[in-house]
Specification:
This protein has three domains: 90 residues, no CATH class; 96 residues, Beta-Lactamase; 255 residues, P-loop containing nucleotide triphosphate hydrolases (Rossmann fold), CATH 3.40.50.300. It contains 18 helices and 15 strands. Helix content is 38%, strand content 22%. The protein is of the alpha/beta class. The radius of gyration is 27 Å and the shape is elongated. A hairpin with a 5-residue loop joins strand 14 and strand 15.
Length: 459
């Protein structure tokens, strides 16, 4: 009887192939046996010239079958070994199926048996997969970075790159990482949330959504702030969806993560010095260049350094409707971070002048937060209204007030619309947008009533 190829073997076991939710040691009760098989077959196979010289699948299958003949394995155990080998050859080893799982949004490999994933906003240890050793992790890292034209070694021990599927990879190895290579992959869902999704899952209210849509269409300058993993990029994608299709949009990012649906979009991405040993191209370089590309909108994926000055200059010289994100713990903290980043430019500018620049540049600051239960909510929408004792003054328009944790360990609270008519309401009206009149209807009526009373008093 002829030997089955790897593909044929796997075809016979289709129903058994998808075992990513089954622990290695649930299938192999004998932990030592599995570790031995992984060492003898996977490690030795990958070290052999068979892989490096593109040997036929039949030769590889023959090697595997020969090794498996030494052991009394069940059909499930044999299929699982073939699956592991296929992932090593055609994929990215033990994390191949995690990369394919749309429910996993982040993968963190801290060590051979120390792997964490994020699912539905919750971080958890994943005991279903493991690596053989640190060298195994290093092999997968090298394979991943080489697939996008990058290198990682002792002289260049840190890489931040975008994979072909859009996921963002960060790898750091010794001597910078003390305990061994560390791999972090942030995945981006292909079915990104739209505004209806964000309303449906409680990230914002319909009033907030309509207000933000009006702000974008009125070409207000907006900053989105929040912590790591809070959903800033997702929200930025949603806000960008409100930009009219006829506008020319230029996006600038360290790693291209934005998925804009408009036709006239120019995407720019920074270039590391490691890439083909060329000159480093920074966010600041790209912001400066974007100004010469006749943009209707400039969207900076994340501002984190000296490019803040160039961005402010763009906003203050007629480039309306710019949107960016930054790491900050609230709107006021975002303002202070922008001040600090401007000072990083090396140009001596008085603090008062920087604050005037910021006050003139930004209209709206949005804070999005990942709560303790893993859900994401817009917790603050404020506008920049001017100065108060030489400090930039912010006024809340919408907010989320936490009230505690319920029996299901979910954060309870309520969204609040403040009794305040934003200054930007006038800007929005001047653009011919009246879709938010009903949101502030009661406040407008009070103002009209006060005006009528004052007019009567004057008479």
């Amino acid at each position: 009887m002829a030997k089955k190829t790897l593909v044929e073997e796997l075809e016979l076991q289709k129903e058994m192939k998808n075992v990513q939710f089954v622990s290695d040691y649930d299938i192999f009760k004998d932990k030592n046996l599995l570790d031995q098989l992984r060492k003898n077959i996977i490690q030795d196979l990958l070290d052999s010239p068979m892989i490096n010289t593109n040997q036929s699948t039949e030769n590889i299958d023959y090697y595997i079958n020969k090794e498996l003949e030494k052991y009394d394995l069940s059909t499930l155990e044999r299929s699982y070994i073939y699956n592991l080998v296929e992932n090593e050859i055609a994929g990215f080893g033990p994390i191949t199926e995690l990369l394919q799982d749309k429910n996993v949004t982040e993968i963190m490999v801290n060590g051979p048996d120390d792997i964490y994933v994020e699912m539905n906003g919750k971080l958890m240890k994943d005991d279903t997969v493991s690596f053989i050793n640190s060298e195994h992790i290093m092999r997968i890292i090298e394979k991943m970075v080489q697939s996008v034209g990058r290198t990682i070694d002792a002289t260049n021990p840190m890489v931040d790159a975008r994979l072909q599927d859009g996921s963002r990879l960060n790898a750091i190895i010794p001597p910078l990482s003390i305990k061994g290579p560390v791999l972090t992959i942030r995945k981006f869902r292909k079915d990104l949330d739209d505004i209806e999704d964000m309303i449906g899952n409680g990230t914002m209210t319909p009033y907030m959504a309509r207000f933000l849509e009006a702000c974008v269409k009125a070409k207000l300058n907006i900053a989105v702030c929040g912590g790591t993993g809070s959903g800033k990029t997702t929200l930025l994608n949603v806000l960008s969806s409100f930009i009219p299709t006829e506008e020319r949009i230029i996006t600038i990012e360290d790693a291209a993560e934005l998925k804009l649906q408009q036709e006239h979009v120019i995407s720019l991405e920074t270039k590391d010095t490691n890439y083909q040993n060329g000159k480093e191209i920074t966010i600041r370089d790209l912001v400066r260049n974007a100004l010469r590309m006749r943009p209707d909108r400039i969207i900076v994926g994340e501002v984190r350094g000296e490019e803040a000055l160039d961005m402010l200059q763009a906003m203050n010289t007629g480039h309306e409707g710019s949107i960016t994100t930054l790491h900050a713990n609230g709107p006021l903290d975002a303002i202070h971070r922008i001040e600090t980043m401007v000072l990083m430019s090396g140009i001596e500018i008085p603090i008062r002048a920087i604050r005037e620049y910021i006050e003139n540049a930004f209209d709206i600051i949005i804070e999005i937060e990942r709560l303790s239960d893993g859900r994401r909510k817009i917790t603050n929408i404020s506008e920049v209204v001017g100065f108060q004792e030489d400090e930039i003054y912010l006024q809340k328009i919408f907010a989320f007030r936490e009230q505690g944790v319920n029996d299901q360990n979910q954060v309870s609270g309520e969204f609040v619309l403040y009794n305040y008519l934003p200054k930007v309401y006038t800007k929005i009206k001047h653009k011919g947008i009246d879709s938010i009149d009903d949101i502030f209807e009661s406040i407008l009526k009070k103002q009209d009533s006060k005006k009528i009373t004052k007019d009567k008093e004057k008479k």
